[in-house]
Design brief:
Length: about 425
């Protein structure tokens, strides 16, 4: 029966301090995979789930800083671990939290919530539960994407999320076409600007157009061939105009989309003929050998590398095969459709991509990898290299590189040929 005391309002400063103490363990995805002494896996899992429950509760906090930090922590966990059973039990709570944050939050919070929605669908894979999530979040995402008053960053994040979630979830062809139409209405505005100004100028909307174009291209890879033909007829003659954009990312997105469209067109028709091939290859060759001094060296290197591959795809129907290693397995990326899909999920999962390729049933199905390879603890232990061994290997490699470079840099070597 003591005297009632005045309760101070919960300030943003208090929230940020509290959140930092809760979220510090998830600030870096690498914290999940640190080498260390063997621990009780069951206890570790329980501790992880306890923390995640706390983060889910914090997504409903009054403080925007707290909500955003909780969303980021959940993103880090979802990209680094397979948490299917944990999420299955709480999928509706998570969906409601994401929906509320996208609807009522500011730009950064909306971006974090959209990113978490992507990872939620990646974890759940394709199924009835994921369809329920998309039925709730799909209309909200479309509304933000089409809302001219919303921040560009939020619209960009929602456009990416809309494309990825639709790719994972939908079996409904009308929903697929509706989502593609929504994204088309965004990036085709870049065509309009090109007609108005005789050359696409860089504006703050360009990042939104790039995200919408890439999300649309991802969905095009799962369309029926008759629909693919229609889209090629509409866009193949318009996309080259975006190669003149001031923004590097837009030029690269347009170039890679063109390569993918040519690949799909030739799959449907081996004798596919493009009328303006000479003009297009001339543009692509100019970008593949661009030496403009007003552009940064890093940008020029990146652009030349991408457009050399695009030019080979358009002219010679060739694709430079890439190999991706994850655990004891290897995956070969041997076409533009596969490259587009891989790049999209790598952007979302970051450093967790290799882990998900090993363990995530949905991703393994997308890339036709079969069921996860089951290795016993003894086999895994023999495959794992200790920190000390890694250090010795890196030191030896460093010494060898230094020795080889020193010979090449020796000022006394081949002096005579300069005179």
């Amino acid at each position: 029966g003591g005297q009632p005391r005045n309760v101070q309002p919960f300030s943003d400063e208090d929230a940020s301090i509290e959140t930092m103490s809760h979220c510090s363990g998830f600030s870096d995805p690498a914290s999940f995979t640190e080498d260390g002494p063997e621990v009780d896996e069951e206890a570790t899992q329980e501790d992880l789930e306890y923390k995640l429950k706390g983060f889910i509760d914090l997504t409903l906090d009054k403080s925007a800083k707290t909500r955003q930090a909780a969303l980021e922590s959940l993103k880090s966990a979802f990209s680094s671990k397979i948490l299917y059973e944990f999420i299955m039990e709480r999928r509706m709570t998570l969906t409601d939290s994401i929906e509320r944050c996208i609807k009522k939050g500011k730009s950064d919070e909306q971006c974090a919530a959209a990113g978490l929605a992507c990872l939620l669908c990646v974890q759940m894979g394709s199924g009835i539960e994921s369809e329920e999530i998309f039925k709730t979040l799909g209309p909200v995402l479309k509304k933000i994407v089409c809302d001219g008053t919303a921040s560009i960053q939020a619209r960009q994040a929602c456009a990416t999320c809309l494309g990825i979630c639709c790719f994972i979830v939908t079996d409904d062809i009308t929903e697929l076409y509706s989502t593609m139409e929504c994204l088309e209405n965004i990036f085709t505005k870049a065509y309009q600007r090109d007609r108005d100004t005789n050359g696409v100028s860089s504006t703050h909307n360009t990042v939104l157009h790039v995200s919408a174009l890439l999300a649309w291209t991802l969905l095009l890879t799962i369309c029926p061939m008759n629909e693919v033909k229609k889209k090629i007829e509409v866009h193949l003659h318009k996309l080259p105009s975006l190669l003149s954009c001031d923004d590097l990312n837009m030029r690269i997105a347009a170039g890679e989309t063109l390569a993918l469209l040519f690949e799909l067109a030739r799959e449907t028709d081996a004798d596919f003929f493009y009328e303006d091939m000479d003009l297009l290859t001339e543009k692509l060759r100019a970008l593949a050998t661009d030496g403009n001094k007003h552009r940064a060296k890093v940008d020029k290197r990146k652009q030349r590398s991408v457009f050399r591959d695009v030019l080979r795809a358009v002219e010679e129907r060739d694709f430079p095969t890439e190999m991706v290693k994850f655990g004891p397995e290897r995956m070969y990326i041997d076409c533009w459709v596969k490259k587009q899909t891989y790049d999209t999920f790598k952007e979302i999962l970051g450093s967790g991509m290799q882990y998900h390729l090993q363990s995530n049933d949905f991703l393994r199905n997308v890339f036709e990898l079969g069921p996860p390879v089951m290795l016993d603890a003894a086999t895994l232990k023999t495959m794992k290299i200790s920190r000390f061994e890694r250090h010795l290997y890196n030191s030896a490699a460093f010494k060898a590189r230094t020795k080889a470079r020193s010979k090449c840099r020796d000022k006394r070597a081949d002096v005579g040929e300069f005179f």
